[in-house]
Amino acid sequence: MKKLTLLVLTLVMGLVLVACGSTPQEKFTKSVEKTSEPADQSTTTIGFKIDELPATLKAQQSAAMLEGLAVKMTVANDQKAQKSAATIAVKTAGLVHIDASLDLLVDSKAEKVYFPLSDLYDDKGNLTTLLDQLTGGMFSQIKKENPDLATKYVELTEVAKDLTDEKVKKEATNTKEVEKATKDLSKKVTKTVTDYFNSLPEDRFKEGDDGELTVKLTKTDITKLANQLVKLADDKDVKADLKVIVTAQGVSEKDFDEQYTSSVESVKEAIKDVEAEKNAKITIDATIKPGKDDTIDSMNMKVKITDTQDKENPETMAFTITMKTTDSAKLPKFPTKSDVISTTELQKIIEEATSSYYDSLYGDSLTDTDTVQ
């Protein structure tokens, strides 16, 4: 099941990354092809929802937390302003109930990432409840004593520096180099995917009355396409593009080189194992709705993975992936210098609130040698 899932996610990542003619097939492939030409301003929402978990996973306490997991990420991007905003919402219906939403603001030109503390003061979900459970109620105390923090932002690049105790590189990341590598990689992946779709029989593509285009992919389709995608990893230009993208995120070139080959081999081995596995069944029902200028307005992929090795109790995992794009981006207000609180200031506030919290619980009964149980 793990190898089946790895293979499907490899394929899905390719489709999302690349994420009209006269026939449904031509319209489908033309829409996919257009995804390698992003607009100057765009907003993309990607959703992931687990529809069914295998029985063996449900029996495991840690995995049971994934039941009903739904993740939605919305990214608004303005290429000219070199700014973007992301909202990540997570919900679960399993052993641990989670309903939380967090935001990130990215200023690529200034190389800064901000987290608005207002997210922690918003009680729409159950984030406060979860954090109170982890801190024994101390989180609510910090919020109560520091209402002004609701208007502040923490610079996560500074947090990362403090946590890793590393010096910030003085050289600015060459954003143009990263953009070029990303576009080159996207075009190569797009061509591989569209070439495969074009090789399929036309009658496998259907068009609905509402303009939606559908195709059902089988295990054979998925392994063939996955093999084509993984072949790209042997292209030195593809590896070079990936190195530019990954090292820009802070990974050393040495670590990248050491892990690249082993990671690619792992995927290749997984594909071979799935091809040889007679009891494995995979289906993906892919639906695309073209928008203006042949772009993808929305995409929906229903994935079902079945392992029938145990004939009496077959294992099934199902999940749905959705994507919607628009050619516009409404960015929130970015913080000014006075809006940003330093990690040192934040740490001091937390320490003072912690001390105050325990004083309220234990008073003078605590000494320097006491341990709070």
3D structure, described in words:
Keywords: Signal. By secondary structure, the protein is an alpha+beta fold. Helices cover 43% and strands 24% of the residues. The chain has one domain (2-117, 152-293, 300-331). The chain contains 13 helices and twelve strands. The relative contact order is 0.18. The model is unreliable at 17-21, 162-172 and 366-373 (pLDDT under 50).
Main sheet summary: 12 strands, mixed
Count structural domains. Answer: 1
User: If you average the pLDDT, what whole number results?
Assistant: 81
Query: Residue share in helices?
Result: 40-55%
Cα Rg: 24 Å
Annotation keywords:
disordered C terminus; Lipoprotein; signal; 12 strands; twelve-stranded mixed β-sheet; 373 residues; 13 helices; single chain; alpha+beta
Topology, element by element:
Blueprint: H1 2-18, H2 24-34, E1 41-52, H3 55-58, H4 61-64, E2 70-78, E3 83-91, E4 99-107, E5 112-116, H5 118-121, H6 127-135, H7 138-145, E6 153-155, H8 156-164, H9 175-199, E7 206-207, E8 213-217, H10 219-231, H11 236-247, H12 253-276, E9 280-290, E10 296-307, E11 315-326, E12 340-341, H13 343-362
Helix pairs in contact: 1-9, 1-10, 1-12, 2-9, 7-13, 9-11, 10-12, 11-12
Task: Give a quick precis of the structure.
The chain has 373 residues and is α+β, with helices and mostly antiparallel strands. It has helices spanning 2-18, 24-34, 55-58, 61-64, 118-121, 127-135, 138-145, 156-164, 175-199, 219-231, 236-247, 253-276, 343-362, and strands spanning 41-52, 70-78, 83-91, 99-107, 112-116, 153-155, 206-207, 213-217, 280-290, 296-307, 315-326, 340-341.
